[in-house]
Amino acid sequence: VSLERAFPLEPPPARPHDDEDVVIATLLRARGADGSARDHEGWVDAGDDAAVVDHGLAVTVDALVEGVHFDRRLSPEDVGYKTLAVSVSDLAAVGARPSWAVLALALPASDPAWVDGFARGLADACARWGVRLVGGDTVRTPGPRTASLTLGGTCVAAPRRRSGARPGDDLWVTGTLGLASAGWRLDAPPAAALAALRRPDPPLAFALDLALDGLATAGMDLSDGLARDLPRLCAASRVGAVVDADALPGDPCLGSDAVDHQLRGGEDFQLLFTAPPGHADALRALAARHGVRLTRVGRIEPGDAPRLAQGSWPTPAWAHFAVDPGGAA
Amino acid sequence: VSLERAFPLEPPPARPHDDEDVVIATLLRARGADGSARDHEGWVDAGDDAAVVDHGLAVTVDALVEGVHFDRRLSPEDVGYKTLAVSVSDLAAVGARPSWAVLALALPASDPAWVDGFARGLADACARWGVRLVGGDTVRTPGPRTASLTLGGTCVAAPRRRSGARPGDDLWVTGTLGLASAGWRLDAPPAAALAALRRPDPPLAFALDLALDGLATAGMDLSDGLARDLPRLCAASRVGAVVDADALPGDPCLGSDAVDHQLRGGEDFQLLFTAPPGHADALRALAARHGVRLTRVGRIEPGDAPRLAQGSWPTPAWAHFAVDPGGAA
């Protein structure tokens, strides 16, 4: 996997939260300069939702920081559960069955009650998705609680990547969009929104069967909102896309800002994928078998970026990386 | 691997830095209660330096927190290098060749110069040990810089564990002990001490050949100091040990507190292992071939804890986990 293919270059960042892309680019640039001539044929790395190395082993890492990725709206149990769930979403994206996890936990103080709740939530999630926690590192920090979980699993078929979409493909999403966004942003979020925020529900079983059946041409998980994630898929596949905002799967509880939550929110942890139009019936049947809501939201077209059928593409709002630097130590 | 075998129970912690053991025990207890009946035959997990799962895949994670694990004595390059080196030490301990890494990086503010240095140091370390950085997650934190790296690799033979030591075995260590401790604790550390602190040098090639040759009965890496680490090996193997403090490999630059640095320091990132006395010549020959300093520091005996030939076992001093909770937010 070449660097260029692995990490499609995007325009230089204009907004602070795009620091993430700069950091990743810096790490990869340094890596590229190491002169190493090792053969990594068949490996997939930075630029997709999970890396894929030997034996179809898929690996992903996610860090959750208190005050950035979670706050008092999440119980310790929720945080433990979500720490795994967000990574399950990444493996689902590439079509890998989760197997083991290691955890790095940085804690500011002795806090047995929090750890106990976190451990129970994590164990619940592990039981649900068949994951075994095999190791970890626990360290003290003068900062906020930070959980970094690495999840490993095995691809059930060739890895599903962001780069395979072709003009004419349909664009599909699973589940309901915007609920977690409403959970974050509303003053008094409805129960469904809080549930989505606290207990992400990535469609793993559907995603694995989708990979086995070879029905999709490209895919990724929706973690930062369609407005930010779809451009990444388009860049990786070197295509454009048109999205029908009226077709986005919603919920009455999203209220009058529904489209904003659906497009510019984040943390949906649903699957965004592309497939030839001829696969539509098979896809609907597969989704029905799994009890998964499946919605065609647009189609791939020539170009290099997505657009809305209703107008210009929205600015992304979700910014995991957007803590006011002025507020930092 | 049963929980009991995987995580040898130790006495309840008396000191704050033993919180780490409590956290790990809590996580494993919760995991044990999940009712999962999956088969993990052949897996090695929490309680050894790295977990070993399918295909002899060894995995380890380590987190480095600014102000706890590094400070201004380390340049950004050093931090990047050390982030990988400490995990290479874990894989060396179990006899696994490093292959890929994923990184979770939490940063308090946009800081291109720091990231650039970190990336260069990490790339240097990756080139040295043949590791490819395949993915990561970069997040903003209101706390200190925190790097959590997960390293994967492949066991070259049956995993070397902490649990195989038998009475009568010799106890060996590679390298020099106490240098990094002197680097941390001296006001004006000598160059060799600073180098050890900044650029850990785990004896990977020796450790792999040692595994291939099947010469050791048990092993672990020395990360928290012999005073803290050897009791763990003894507990895992259900044996005692006697250590000759005068035999510990030192350096003139350690000065008058040499034995304290060697025993109660930490961050040696050397290999501690046991082997039948009949292997001594083969071990010395192997070490000579690798240019590795190898020292017999004691022997395994019946019992359940180590002792010094010169007197009682020292209290551990090294405490990764010991930030004053009163100082935390």
Give a quick summary of the entry:
Two copies of one chain form a homodimer. Chain A has helices at residues 3-6, 19-32, 76-94, 112-129, 179-185, 191-198, 204-213, 226-237, 258-264, 280-290, and strands at 51-52, 57-65, 96-107, 132-140, 146-155, 170-174, 218-222, 240-243, 270-275, 294-301, 306-308.
Question: How would you describe the overall organization of this protein?
Answer:
- 2 copies of one chain form a homodimer.
- By secondary structure, chain A is α+β, with helices and mostly antiparallel strands.
- Helices cover 33% and strands 22% of the residues of chain A.
- Chain A is built from 10 helices and 11 strands.
- Chain A has helices at residues 3-6, 19-32, 76-94, 112-129, 179-185, 191-198, 204-213, 226-237, 258-264, 280-290, and strands at residues 51-52, 57-65, 96-107, 132-140, 146-155, 170-174, 218-222, 240-243, 270-275, 294-301, 306-308.
- In chain A, the strands form 2 sheets. In chain A, strands 7-9-6-10-8-11 form a 6-stranded mixed beta sheet, sandwiched between helices.
- In chain A, helix 3 packs parallel to helix 7.
- The longest helix of chain A has 19 residues, at 76-94.
- The termini of chain A are far apart.
- The relative contact order of chain A is 0.15.
Attribute tags:
alpha+beta, homodimer, 10 helices, 11 strands
Amount of beta strand of chain A? 15-25%
Number of helices of chain A: 10
The parts of chain A where pLDDT drops under 50 for at least 5 residues are 1-18, 33-38, 320-329
Question: Care to count the β-strands of chain A?
Answer: 11
Estimated helix fraction of chain A: 25-40%
Largest sheet of chain A: 6 strands, mixed
| Helix-strand pattern of chain A | HHEEHEHEEEHHHEHEHEHEE
Assembly annotation: homodimer
Given the helix and strand composition of chain A, which structural class is it? alpha+beta
What form of chain A results from the Cα inertia axes? globular
* Structural Rg of chain A: 19 Å
* CA-CA gap between termini of chain A: 39 Å
List the strand order in the largest sheet of chain A. Answer: 7-9-6-10-8-11
Mean pLDDT over the full residue set of chain A: 87
Q: Could you tell me which chain pair has the largest interface and how many residues each side has?
A: A-B, 87 and 87 residues
